[in-house]
Structures are given as structure tokens and as C-alpha cells.
Amino acid sequence: MLDVALMGSAFLMGMAGSVHCVSMCAAPCAAVTGGRGTASAAFHAGRLASYSLAGAVAASSIGLLWQWEQAASWLRPLWLGLHLAVLALGLWLLWRGEQPLWMQRRWERAPSGAAAGSATGRSTLAGLAWVAWPCGLLQSALLVAALATGPVTGALVMAAFALGSSPGLWAGPWLLRRLAQARATKPAEASVIQWWGRAPGLAAGPALASAASTGLSIPAPTGGSPPQTGPEMGPHLGPDPDLATSPDTGAAGLRWATRLSGLLLSAAALWALGHGLWVQIRAYCG
């Protein structure tokens, strides 16, 4: 009965987190599957398999805690070296605002290697690797799976979570495609939208822009001046010059985002390195 309750809880967690999955995973899912049905099915099959395997490992890990405790003496240097490496990487990112050269070269080679196989194969591999995604909801589900009575039940718990969260991952790429189609308006309609939305006293501008974004045909307005042409309001659809982002601005934003990632990595590594130290100091001081 407890295992059934755990599976039901994991399934409901996945269903409740579907909105979170849409916001976090829609873009990478769309990039992996390309909106193809076969690739999407392969991706979700790989994701189901990896989640189930992770659930089995989580359920079995409770019995391995004692063995890990016995091996803590020789694991501690590895733990220390790992966090020192993470700290060094974080400080580099914070200082330079870019990845190290060896990481850039590795990422540059990744697309060519990934493109060698079929779309279905790439989607399956991505689904298998999805269990490593830094998702708090996923980690919470693994904690639930760790309460299972055995590896088989743990696998079923995570399979239930994968099925419950699948609607969000199916709907995310579809929603992105719909939004992309909604923004693809015709050039003739765009000139009308620009004139109608900017003309003084016409409160219907936003409504017409919304209607045109769905691909509807917009008739020309019956009154007022015709659409203007010029640097401020051209007859073609294009980005607003006032809202355009220069390449320099985008590069600066990327550097600051990289520095922020380095700051977070450094903070996490320092916390992990100092956690055991502060525990010993507190125990010594009483």
C-alpha cells in the first residue's frame, strides 16, 4: 500500500509541475525534437527509461549508505578535489566572463558529433540524459523514490513521475511553435498594424495587432492618413529600431550572465568546502 501511495504522489507531483516543465524545458525540448512526432516519442521513451533507472538507484541507495560511510575516509580527498576544481572554474568565469578555451572547443565539437546520427537517435540520447537536468522538482521526486521498498518499486515511482510530467513537455514545444506562427504576419498587414497602433486616438491598435498575429487579414482603415513610409515607420515588417538590441549589448549581457554563473558556482563550492570545517569548529567550541 505504501508503494502505491508513493507512485500516486509522484504522478501528482508530475502533473502539478507541468506548468513548471513548460516554462523551464519547452525551449530545449523543441530544440532537441524539432517538433517531429517520432523524435518526440523517442525523447520521452529515453526520458522514461532514465527516470526509472534513477528511481531504482535512489531506492537502492539507502542500503548502500553504510558501505559509503565505511569508504568515507578515502572518498574525502576526491570530494575535496572536486569542489576545489569547481571553485577554480567559478572564479575563472567570474573574472573573465567567458568559458575556458578547452570548454569552448569541446562545445564547438559537440554539434558536429551530435548531427552525425538520426534525429530519433539524438532525441533518444537527449531523453536518456534528461535525468541530469538541474530541476528541483526532479530531485524532489527522487527523494520520494528513495522511500520505496526496493529498486523495482523505486523505478515505478519515477516512471509515474515521468508520465505525470510528460504533458508539460509535450505541450511546451507545441506552444512555442504556435507563438512563432502567431508572430509571422504578412508584410502588408504589418504596415497597417504599425500605422494603426501608433496613430493618435486609435485605441483599437493593440486589438488589431493581436488579431493580425493569428494570421487574419486586416482591412485598411477607412479614415485618417495612409500608412507612412520612412525611417520611423516603414511599409515592411521588422524590429522596432528603438527596441533593437545591438551585438555589443548582447555580448555584454552574455558576459554578465557568465559572471553570475561563476559567482553561484564559487558560492556553492565555498559552502561545500566550509560546511565540514564549520561543523568541526562549532563542535570544538562547544
From TrEMBL:
UniProt name for this protein: Membrane-bounded cytochrome biogenesis DsbD/cycZ-like domain
Organism from which the protein derives: Roseateles depolymerans
InterPro entries, A to Z: UreH-like_TM_dom (IPR039447)
